[in-house]
């Protein structure tokens, strides 16, 4: 008499779990951002040509084997300037997002936890700043601090800090009355310890999603300010001032505007796709919907 293996040991065997493949938006977004970071890192250390060297004999040269993306009105290599501009844009974006996240987190954490008049006063001032569009507020601040690399970082950092403070405050308010926070108070822990040990770690997920999307906003704002002549001063290359410099030559040297515009567009696409993937990964509501 034969015994069916499925009724004995086979029944207790568990099916092997299939490894989940990354979402398509994570793959495409990660690839585009990886290319950006590679270009920025390489551009900070090496470029095919000196991005500041003038060569009037080669001005407005079309893309060729010698200059893959052509040259500008001063004979400077467009590819080299794009790589150097990527390094500048990424550096400004990283420092700006870091500044906004650090100060916004401190403000939102303190305001949401303390409540009362402290919260009302801080949020009134915060909402007043939020009433202004970020780019408009940055323009006003640049008039005070000056149009340079670090002026842009300070201006955009201040402009985006209120958004971070608002998100962190909302998270803190939802956590403040939870049981583990009450238990920390009963144990006699200091308020600063409770905020740092129990509340701040729970703000990491929304902060990660916000910082990812904010990176794209900052990069676009920096390009817009440079396009308006309020960014990094020439001859230092940025994608924005390269786009602005291409306007008089758009009829005879179309590549001067296409390549910086394409770089900005693809970077923003990659950031948005990667931000969606991060949100889907960290937001429990999005995981449930899948």
TrEMBL record:
Entry keyword Transcription regulation: no
TM region(s), chain numbering: 23-46, 90-110, 122-144, 150-168, 204-229, 249-275
Family matches, as Pfam families: BPD_transp_1
Listed PROSITE patterns: ABC_TM1 (PS50928)
Domain ABC transmembrane type-1 stretches: 86-275
Stated family: Belongs to the binding-protein-dependent transport system permease family.
Designated name of the protein: Peptide/nickel transport system permease protein
Native source species: Bosea robiniae
């Amino acid at each position: 008499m034969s015994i069916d293996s499925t009724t004995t040991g086979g029944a207790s065997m568990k099916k092997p779990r299939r490894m989940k493949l990354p979402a398509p938006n994570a793959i495409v977004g990660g690839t585009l951002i990886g290319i950006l970071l590679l270009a920025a890192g390489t551009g900070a250390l090496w470029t095919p040509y000196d991005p500041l060297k003038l060569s009037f004999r080669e001005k407005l040269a079309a893309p060729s084997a010698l200059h893959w993306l052509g040259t500008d009105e001063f004979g400077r290599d467009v590819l080299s300037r794009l790589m150097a501009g990527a390094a500048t844009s990424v550096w400004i974006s990283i420092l700006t997002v870091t500044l906004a996240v650090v100060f916004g987190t401190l403000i939102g954490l303190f305001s949401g936890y303390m409540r009362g008049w402290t919260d009302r006063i801080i949020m009134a001032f915060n909402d007043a700043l939020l009433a202004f569009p970020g780019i408009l507020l940055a323009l006003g601040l640049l008039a005070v601090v000056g149009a340079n690399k670090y002026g842009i970082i300070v201006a955009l950092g201040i402009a985006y800090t209120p958004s971070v403070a608002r998100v962190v405050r909302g998270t803190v308010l939802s956590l403040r009355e939870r049981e583990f926070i009450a238990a920390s108070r009963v144990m006699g822990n200091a308020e600063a310890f409770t905020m740092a040990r129990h509340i701040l770690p729970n703000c990491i997920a929304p902060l990660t999603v916000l910082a990812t999307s904010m990176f794209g906003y900052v990069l676009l704002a920096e390009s817009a300010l440079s396009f308006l002549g309020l960014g990094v001063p020439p001859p230092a290359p940025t994608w924005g001032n390269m786009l602005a410099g291409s306007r008089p030559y758009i009829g005879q040297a179309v590549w001067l505007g296409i390549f910086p515009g394409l770089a900005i567009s693809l970077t923003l696409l990659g950031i948005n796709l990667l931000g969606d993937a991060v949100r889907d990964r960290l937001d429990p509501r999005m995981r449930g919907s899948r």
